């Protein structure tokens, strides 16, 4: 599992709960009582013209049915504990948006835990691991190819990191060298940032 919508409010009865696309084009999870426990809260969609799609890269999106390139909401912008290939790890943007990965409480409980990974300090292009608010590890600064060959983040000839900085945002992302390699970077409940290939 690479993404959980309602990790703070799990459903008590998954068999009577509902994932529903509303007329206002928001995707919601309704508990058995029909009480809403999660929503995409998107305001950029047109009623009756939206579809929810799980893409091959693991990104769950809401888009206009008539224009498949217009993504109104995507799970890549709301990660949980996993960074997937193609997803941006945003350092800064005009909207003050930053990517934060938060570990699961344990392997069976996706509730947020005490460990997180955030972009490095302003002006530093690195990853920082936190235990609550205390930093306990920093990657090397971005070298132009990767984060300084961190043993847990780099498997030579398997993934390619890219780094982009422009007037709108600063981010890094990665891709698999081979389309047949499945890869993901996960912050484990123990606080270890691990690349799985």
Write the layout of secondary structure elements.
Layout: E1 18-21, E2 27-30, E3 36-39, E4 50-54, E5 60-64, E6 67-74, E7 82-83, E8 89-93, E9 101-106, E10 109-119, E11 127-131, E12 134-138, E13 159-165, E14 169-176, E15 184-187, E16 193-196
Antiparallel strand pairs: 1-2, 2-3, 4-5, 5-6, 7-15, 8-14, 9-10, 10-11, 11-12, 13-14, 15-16
Task: Tell me what you see in this structure.
There is one protein chain. It is globular and about 50 Å long. 0% of the residues lie in helices and 44% in strands. The two termini are 15 Å apart. It is mostly beta strands and 197 residues long. The protein has a four-stranded antiparallel sheet, with no helix packed on it. The protein has no helices and 16 strands. The protein has strands at 18-21, 27-30, 36-39, 50-54, 60-64, 67-74, 82-83, 89-93, 101-106, 109-119, 127-131, 134-138, 159-165, 169-176, 184-187, 193-196.
Observed structural traits:
44% strand; mainly beta; 16 strands; 3-stranded antiparallel beta sheet; 4-stranded antiparallel beta sheet; 197 residues
In short:
This protein has 197 residues and is an all-beta fold. It is built from no helices and 16 strands. A four-stranded antiparallel beta sheet has the order 9-10-11-12, with no helix packed on it. Strands 1-2-3 form a three-stranded antiparallel beta sheet, with no helix packed on it.
Q: Helical amount among residues, as a percent range?
A: under 10%
Oligomer: single chain
Low-confidence stretches: none
Helix/strand order, N-terminal first: EEEEEEEEEEEEEEEE
Q: Which percent range describes the beta-strand content?
A: 35-45%
Number of helices: 0
Shape: globular
Structural class by SSE content: mainly beta
Largest sheet descriptor: 4 strands, antiparallel
With strands numbered from the N-terminus, the spatial order across the biggest sheet is 9-10-11-12
Secondary structure tally: strands: 16
How many angstroms does the end-to-end distance come to? 15 Å
C-alpha Rg (nearest Å): 18 Å
Q: Residue-averaged pLDDT, rounded? A: 84
């Amino acid at each position: 599992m690479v993404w959980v919508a309602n990790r703070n409010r799990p459903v008590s009865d998954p068999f009577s709960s509902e994932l529903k696309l509303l007329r206002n084009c928001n995707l919601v999870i309704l508990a058995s009582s029909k009480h809403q426990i999660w929503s995409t809260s998107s305001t950029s969609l047109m009623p009756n013209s939206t579809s929810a799609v799980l893409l091959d890269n693991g990104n769950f999106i809401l888009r206009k049915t008539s224009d498949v390139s217009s993504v109104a909401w995507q799970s890549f912008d709301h990660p949980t504990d996993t960074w997937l290939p193609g997803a941006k790890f945003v350092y800064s943007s005009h909207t003050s948006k930053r990517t934060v990965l938060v570990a699961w409480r344990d392997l069976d409980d996706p509730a947020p835990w005490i460990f997180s990974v955030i972009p490095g300090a302003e002006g530093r292009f690195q990853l920082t691991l936190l235990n609550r608010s205390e930093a306990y590890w920093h990657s090397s600064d971005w070298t132009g190819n990767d984060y300084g060959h961190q043993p847990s983040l780099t498997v030579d000839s398997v993934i390619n990191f890219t780094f982009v900085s422009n007037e709108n945002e600063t981010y890094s992302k990665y891709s698999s060298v081979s389309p047949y390699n499945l890869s993901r970077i996960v912050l484990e409940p123990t606080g270890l940032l691990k690349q799985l290939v």
